[in-house]
Amino acid sequence: MTDVARVRQPGRPLRRAVIVMAAMLLAGCQTVLPRGATEPGRRPPPVQQPNQVEQGIPTDTARHRVALLVPLSGPNAGVGQSLANATQMALLDSNNQRIRITTYDTNLGAAAAAQRAIAEGNRLILGPLLGDDVRAVTPIAHRAAVPVVAFSNDASAAGQGAYLMGYAPTQSIARVVDYAKAQGITSFAGLVPNGTYGERASTAFLRSVESAGGQVVSLQTYQRVPGSITAAITRMGKDSPYQAILIADSANTASAAVPVIRRVGTSSAHVLGTELWNSESSMANKPSLNGAWFASVSNGLYRQYAAKYRARFGAAPFRLSSLGYDAVLLTIRISADWTVGTPFPERRLSDSGGFAGIDGAFRFGKDGVAERALEVQEIRGGTAVTVSPAPRGFE
């Protein structure tokens, strides 16, 4: 088995793990991924005993059973299928034969999917995607002592054995604010949408600026309806001048807002974005965002992954699909200390040195939310250029 997601040890930085993983990514090993819940040619399961799986589901004695809970139907089916494809790629690329992943459709009911997955003998759950689904799954999994490694970034859904791999806006905002402060910026303004994301972005922004020793001179909210953000910018223009303005929304929204800011706000203000920008492929081609900064996970290894994904599946992956790939790398790394048929060693998820994957170094904090090593990018001449590289690991 290829050691593809190495935990940092003293004297062994995470950079080596990333290099090993990149080599694996390009190798293209050809191992068949176990699929579904039955396999032709296998002996029927023995008579039910405690801790065995339900009738009709084969008992694995050489492989770990892992459930993938994602939407395979409904409005989020595209993202869910991309995550499922990514987990398949990770098993193929790593030539791993000790992990068996069975996929369950959360669009038919996340709680029901979790109950079925646990009844069928899975000892670890990867997913779900949505925060509400994580909240539905966690109590069920917690009672069965099955950890959940979810793809949501809703920090309120973490805990009780649920760990979140999603890209947290709080970390992205803190990183770009720190970078701006290092460039001599001390006065900030913010535009945030109403709603849960905006509330969390506002809190993170205020705390980050205070921590950096700066000052927020204006913070305006808006509805996602025509004219609302223009009205917010107009109100902002009545406040004190600012050197930088955070637009906590998509790159499309930001690109439409910037011309208004230049006209009625502070014309020379530097524009700051969030992790949302990294999921928009056309972001760098928006002239109004030229010179803007935003913080996100690195795209270096992701570009290689995306090329392999397109070659294998005939379509571009969703940006979030790398979470599925990295969740499998994490599972493979921990499986070295996981005896088949025993509970997943949840304590290993809290390894302080963290893990490495396509999206760089990450580790789970005490709150169960993934802390990520982020880089700062600048939109420059139709492309995004790294101006502050991500740390190689954690102290």
UniProtKB/TrEMBL annotation:
Residues 65-382 form the Leucine-binding protein domain. CDD domains: PBP1_YraM_LppC_lipoprotein-like. Pfam families: Peripla_BP_6. Keywords: Amino-acid transport, Signal, Transport. Belongs to the leucine-binding protein family. GO terms for biological process: amino acid transport. It comes from Sphingomonas populi. PANTHER family: LEUCINE-SPECIFIC-BINDING PROTEIN (PTHR30483), PERIPLASMIC BINDING PROTEIN OF ABC TRANSPORTER FOR NATURAL AMINO ACIDS (PTHR30483:SF6). Gene3D superfamilies: 3.40.50.2300. The keyword Nucleotidyltransferase does not apply. Residues 35-54 are annotated as: Disordered. It comes from the Bacteria. This is Penicillin-binding protein activator.
